[in-house]
Amino acid sequence: MDVAITHWINSFAGQTPLVDPLMIAITKVGVPFIVLVVVLQWWSREDRQHVRHAAICAGLAFLLGLAINQGVLLFIHRVRPYEAGVSHLLIAKSADWSFPSDHATASMSVAMAFALQRLPRRAIAFFAMAFLVGLSRVYVGTHYLTDVLGGATTGIVAAIAVRALYREDSKLSRFATGIL
């Protein structure tokens, strides 16, 4: 089923001249754009300390999620769908294994961090961006759907771990959110 859904999503690649460049752009600049939006949260005018805490949580979850992925890659060596003949690749080949998707991990960790901090408008915006990034990775042919779902799961787990370990009322948090 994973192969069939991946193939179906990727089957649109190369068929729509307007969608291909959009998906390529999202897959290339989606995560850096999300990082930029998180950084810009530092200067929020509403509930500044809480939003700053959420931005720090997002950054920590981002880093933790990608670190977890590196551990997973030591044990799971899944070839990319374009190497298995499942997808048509629209971007340059990747040098690492397919599972889990770092892009999905990074974007979902940010979205979940903002959701866990009870900032619903921001969380919805980040979830929408994470969805587009994940979809773009399958569309451009570099990931299976389950690679994206696995990466999203890692991002969620990382955000939950950060939420449990980095408390807003701690001395460290008060110090960090007071910078600038």
Automatic annotation (TrEMBL):
The keyword Lyase does not apply. Keywords: Membrane, Transmembrane, Transmembrane helix. The chain crosses the membrane at residues 22-43, 55-77, 123-142, 148-166. Residues 55-163 form the Phosphatidic acid phosphatase type 2/haloperoxidase domain. It comes from the Bacteria. Signal peptide: none annotated. Pfam families: PAP2 (PF01569). PANTHER family: AT30094P, SPHINGOSINE-1-PHOSPHATE PHOSPHOHYDROLASE. This is Phosphatidic acid phosphatase type 2/haloperoxidase domain-containing protein.
